[in-house]
Amino acid sequence: VTSQVVRLLQSWRRGEAFFPYWASRDGSCGAIVDGIEGLIGDTPLVRIRSLSEQTGCEILAKAEMLNPGGSVKDRVALEMVREALADGHLKPGGLITEGTAGSTGVSLTMVAASSGCRCRIAMPDDAAAEKAALLQALGADVRRVRPVSITHPGHFVNVARREAAAEPGSALFANQFENLANFRAHLRTGREIWRQTCGRLHAFVSGAGTGGTIAGISCYLKSQNPRIQIMLVDPPGSSLFNKVKRGVLYACEEAEGRRLRNPFDTITEGIGINRITANFSLAQVDDAYKGTDREAVEMAAYLLRNDGLFVGSSAAMNCVGAVKAARTLGPGHTIVTVLCDGGQRHLSKFHNPDYLRQHGLAPECTGRDLSFVQR
Ligand code: PMP
Asked: Which of these, 268, 273, 267, 370, lies nearest to 324 by C-alpha position?
């Protein structure tokens, strides 16, 4: 105590603020994290009040939009880069390439900068212009290519793969669909959910894009309690619902992946696939629901109206899935899902009233009623 008082008086005489000495032994007032990596993960689990009250279940969601890159993909980018640096596939100063039109490019570019690496993102030139502009502002080398089938060498994923192959030993093709660092990143998300709920949860619900989220979280939660139900919610145009229902979740369906999902099948971005990726093949899924674009649009408007939550399309679809799971399980259960990103990145489509009107999807519901979620 005496030494604390002496330090306090000394700092006071030096004209420094002395509050920190009261706050803690090491002089810090709160958590200090080391660099951008320290800001990734450990997101809060938010209780969605309106959905909880309406369903009689506790509906909880991981607020992944609070990651520094604004989405759940920060976790994946960090793990892919960390593992590649650790095993020597990537050298400091090296190049990271990825084919993506989504959030992964943003996350990779930020993590690459912090690790002293460069990032090159190949994307189709029909992707929203603001996405390319954002990536360029962050410092990525953006290659916009003609949209072609995945079987074509000019497909953006194949371009990214070739560019990394051209610099063997120093470049990494991140390959989020097949790279199991994605799955491992989400084992951590699963552990966070387990700890935040003190293990008191009955179900987890999510869509799948690469499958990393649902695979990592399901494996962690089932390892702690195999009775926790894992539900997939699948948008139009995706074939995962049928695969889960038929119980055929194995990689030899890869051939089907040659038929890429048509981007016009759904307004949701980032979820829905027609093949079993390496990441998805590890998921332990008990049941599946179909979700429609109208349900996702209505849910996003509902969450904004009732909870002040501004979420992206996949997050809205996940909440649709959570309501369906609440109806299946009945009141009194705790259901967890993921808010993958915020609405800000969806202003040109999903949150654009003109776009929605043109596609007959303008939200029509008002109030707190959840009848727009189909049975
Ligand atoms: N939401 C958004 C916005 C995404 O970018 C993705 C990834 N494509 C997902 C959801 C799906 O997550 P996962 O890839 O882990 O299945």
From this structure: 370
Of 340, 346, 349, the one to substitute when testing ligand 1's pocket (max ligand atoms within 8 A of C-beta) is: 340
Task: State ipTM.
Answer: 0.97
pTM over 0.80: yes
Which residues, 6+ apart, have CB-to-CB distance to 113 below 8 Å?
Answer: 119, 138, 139
Nearest CA to ligand 1 atom 5: 270
DSSP characters for 152-176? STTSHHHHHHHHHHTSTTTEEE--T
In terms of DSSP bridges, do strands 334-339 and 203-206 run parallel, antiparallel, or are they unpaired? parallel
CA 215, chain centre distance (Å): 12
CA 238 to chain centre: 18
User: Rounded to the nearest whole angstrom, what is the distance from the C-alpha of residue 114 to the centroid of ligand 1?
Assistant: 23
Nearest atom in ligand 1 to 345's CA: 3
Give the residues across from 172 on adjacent strands.
96
153 residue type, one letter? P
Q: Which two tokens stand for residue 150?
A: 């995945």
| Bridge pairing between strands 203-206 and 229-234 | parallel
Mutational test site, ligand 1, from 75, 183, 314, max ligand atoms within 8 Å of CB = 314
pLDDT in tens, 133-154: 999 999 999 999 998 887 899 9
